[in-house]
Amino acid sequence: MNVFDILGPVMIGPSSSHTAGAVRIGKIARIVLGEQIVKADVYLHGSFAETYLGHGTDRAIVGGLLGFSTDDERIREAVAIAAKVGIQVTFHKSNLGEVHPNTAKIISSGVSGKPISVVASSVGGGNIKVINVLGFSVNFSGQFHTLIIPHLDRPGTVGAVVGVLAGKGINIAQMYVTRERLGLQAMMVIETDEECDRETMETLNTISTLLSVTLVKPL
Question: What is the rounded distance in angstroms from the CA atom of residue 33 to the CA atom of residue 25?
Answer without folding.
Answer: 13
